[in-house]
Write a structure and sequence with these properties.
The complex is a heterodimer of chains A (345) and B (348). With 345 residues, chain A is α/β, with parallel strands linked by helices. Chain A has a domain of 213 residues: Glycerol-3-phosphate (1)-acyltransferase (3-Layer(aba) Sandwich). Chain A has 15 helices and 9 strands. Chain A is globular. Helix content of chain B is 42%, strand content 17%. Chain B has 13 helices and 13 strands. In chain B, the strands form 4 sheets. Chain B has a 7-stranded parallel sheet with strand order 3-2-1-4-5-6-11, sandwiched between helices. A two-stranded parallel ribbon of chain B has the order 7-10. The longest helix of chain B is centred in the N-terminal third of the chain and has 21 residues. In chain B, 47% of the residues are buried. The chains are: A alpha/beta (345), B alpha/beta (348). Chains A and B meet through helix 7, helix 10, strand 4 and helix 11 of A and strand 12, helix 7, helix 12 and helix 13 of B. Chain B: This is NAD-dependent epimerase/dehydratase family protein. Chain B: It comes from Streptomyces triculaminicus.
């Protein structure tokens, strides 16, 4: 795996530079790279194979020329027709699969492939079907890593599974964000919701470090914080779902948080107010994340179905399992960091 | 041996329908409808007694008629008719329930009590789990309005169940009841020409069809079927969930988003203009939404709703007529645009 990574490196900077110059505003970039589909599809065969969605259809259609575009427009109109008449389904948690697959993922995909050039390893550790709990490290000041994790599993997993991320309650208090979050299939990080999702056979993603992880200063990058109270282990044990440790490298450097304005945080009622070299000094420009090179590695699943039912109430076992997961992620992080050549390539 | 059923709140459409339905039950001997105002609809030959449940006369009615099943449906979010005020509704909900329960406690013939409650007891807050079960404690107790009434009513019912353990008590927490003649606050909301919404929030809503509501009340009021239990607290909702935006599109009514702090003003403006009761708890429902788990309803109560939430909503939408932007028109417009394209023609 580590060796295979070397090959695309020679070509990477050019694509990256192009992508970086493509536009600095988030919205501009999101709209522009939607069109040129065939190039990345050939570059990353595994990604294209996992897609199976509209992108691949577009890639195959491209040589046909105008016909492909008309097909796309017709597909778009069909989609629009369903949306404006409300003829689509959402699940009990508000997950709108159609919107996620067709719109949000196509917006996230350029970020994943062109901007952060996310390299996904060990995707086979996520089961084809049945429940699993992905436990990942959390970093980056804004929860971009959660979105990238979701996009990575969606695009690279052979079954195209959607990770149901568990989000902090702050997410559900903010307008627009809570709406999008629910439609993407996220739900509140609480034992009840996590358990229900696991019982329904979903892949659930959790970042147990929470605000301690995402809002830690730049000097403490890649040092895992306390994993909450280990509630995620309890939930996984109750549902008998395997725990898949996941290490994300690259997210720490997107917004290097060199300071934290407690006064502003208290005024705004948020857990931390980041000060980065660019934010808030450059205004909205400071919101542009640095184009770091990411690696998402999924580790060997830790089975939890071998324990007796009363194990979920054994605090010692909880702590041990929590530590095991935490150590695995921390070791993988160090290993990936050693392999990494530079932050940006 | 025939049963004597007393139903409160029969002046409302749902109460009237329930009286007519329960009369057809083979083991029911007599049905007595009670309300403070005479109903405008017929009760299918059931006796109507004009009695205000806020007054102790209700105790005499129970004793004289030897009632054995009480179905308490007079717990409502909206006043009956245009002239009722919120204060009267609250008094009927809370004081009425207290009086009725006091009377039931004094009447030894009462063997079964069914209370129409609401999922409003859970409140709606961003910190709540996405799906409420019957045992989920609300994170923030409703501070006022109908939701608080319901919390208090359920508190009294629990007290009653403790004092009269021989009475089978069934509390049915209904999600938003919709149907051709439902008069719930949400039904009124959806009949506005333009739906005010909260900017940046798209709540998840669940509905129960009127027919299902009647049916589940009948199950609660009768003897439990084999391997089911009809005493306890149950969430009642149709399967599936509709988002508010989706509901508005299916209904063909445009939405008008308001920034959260200004919604309260809009709500009170609408209320004072007499359009509808846009209470704070209603606004919270339209901000954060509410979804309940219905496993208990299926497995323990043995009730399977005939309508899913989207179907119940569809039936309601059909009864209300098209809105300003009927989905059929929009679909036709898109089809026409699609037909202009060569590829679109090929696909159709």
């Amino acid at each position: 795996m580590a060796d295979a990574k070397v090959i695309p490196f020679g070509e990477e900077p050019r694509t990256k530079r192009r992508a970086r110059r493509g536009g600095t505003g988030r919205t501009n970039r999101a709209a522009a790279p939607l069109a040129p589909v065939p190039a990345p599809a050939t570059e990353q065969p595994s990604a294209a194979a996992a897609d199976g969605g509209p992108e691949q259809g577009g890639a195959g259609e491209a040589p046909a020329g105008v016909g492909g575009w008309e097909r796309k427009v017709a597909h778009g109109l069909n989609f629009l027709r369903r949306r404006i008449t409300g003829e689509y389904e959402v699940d009990d948690f508000g997950y709108d699969q159609e919107l996620t697959d067709q719109v949000v993922m196509s917006v996230l995909r350029p970020f994943k492939e062109k901007y952060f050039r996310v390299e996904v390893k060990g995707i086979e550790n996520i089961p084809e079907k049945g429940s699993a709990l992905i436990v990942a490290n959390h970093s980056g000041t804004l929860p971009v890593d959660g979105l990238m994790l979701q996009a990575a599993v969606h695009d690279h997993h052979p079954a195209g599974r959607n990770v149901r991320m568990l989000a902090a309650d702050l997410v559900f208090m903010l307008p627009v964000i809570n709406e999008l979050s629910r439609k993407l299939g996220h739900t509140l990080a609480c034992a009840e919701d996590a358990q229900k999702l696991l019982e329904r056979g979903e892949v659930v993603g959790v970042m147990p470090e929470g605000f301690k992880g995402i809002g830690k200063p730049f000097s403490e990058r890649y040092k895992l914080q306390r994993f909450g109270r280990g509630g995620f282990v309890q939930t996984a044990l109750r549902a008998g779902s395997p725990i898949v440790p996941c290490s994300i490298v690259g997210a720490e450097e997107i917004y290097p948080m060199i300071g934290n304005s407690r006064t502003m945080a208290r005024l705004l009622g948020i857990p931390y107010f980041p000060l980065t070299p660019a934010f808030p000094w450059l205004g909205p420009l400071g919101l542009v994340p640095l184009p770091t090179k990411w690696t998402i590695q999924f580790g060997e699943p830790i089975p939890t179905d071998g324990y007796p039912p009363e194990a979920a109430d054994d605090p010692m076992l909880m702590f041990n399992l929590t530590d095991q997961v935490r150590e695995t992620i921390q070791h993988t992080l160090y290993k990936l960091l050693v392999q990494r050549r530079s932050v940006f390539f | 041996m025939g049963k004597v059923v007393l139903v409160t709140g029969v002046a409302r459409q749902l109460g009237g329908r329930f009286v007519r339905r329960i009369q057809r039950e083979p083991d029911v001997d007599r049905v007595i409808g009670v309300d403070a105002v005479p109903p405008e609809h017929h009760l299918g030959g059931a006796e109507f007694l004009r009695a205000d449940i806020r007054h102790p006369t209700i105790g005499r009615v129970l004793a004289e008629q030897a009632v054995d099943t009480v179905v308490h449906m007079d717990v409502n979010g909206t006043p009956l008719g245009k002239r009722g005020s919120r204060a009267t509704v609250k008094e009927t909900n809370v004081i009425g329930t207290m009086q009725l329960l006091g009377a039931c406690q004094k009447t030894p013939s009462v063997k079964r009590l069914v209370v129409k409650s609401s999922t409003n007891v859970y409140g709606s807050a961003p910190r709540d789990p996405a799906i409420f079960t019957e045992t989920t404690p609300p994170k923030s107790l409703p501070s006022g309005g109908f939701a608080k009434d319901v919390v208090e009513v359920e508190g009294y019912v629990r007290g009653f169940a403790r004092r009269r353990p021989d009475v089978a008590v069934c509390v049915l927490r209904f999600a938003n009841i919709l149907g051709p003649c439902a008069d719930s606050p949400l039904a009124e909301y959806f009949s506005l020409p333009v739906l005010p919404t909260v900017l940046g929030f798209d709540p998840r809503l669940q509905f129960v069809h009127e027919d299902d509501a009647i049916e589940v009340l009948r199950i609660g009021a009768g003897e439990p079927a084999r391997s089911t239990l009809n005493s306890g607290t149950f969430n009642i909702a149709g399967d599936g969930v509709l988002l508010l935006s989706q509901a508005a599109r299916r209904l063909g009514r445009p939405t008008l988003p308001f920034f959260l702090p200004t919604v309260t003003w809009v709500g009170s403006a609408l209320r004072s203009a007499g359009f509808l009761d846009f209470s704070p708890e209603q606004i919270r429902l339209l901000t954060h939404g509410r979804v309940v788990e219905t496993t208990q309803m299926r497995d323990t109560l043995g009730f399977r709703p005939r309508y899913t939430s989207p179907e119940a909503f569809e039936d309601y939408a059909r009864s209300r007529g098209p809105g300003l932007l009927p989905p059929e028109t929009l679909a036709r417009t898109v089809d026409r645009i699609a037909a202009l394209m060569p590829a679109g023609r090929g696909q159709n």
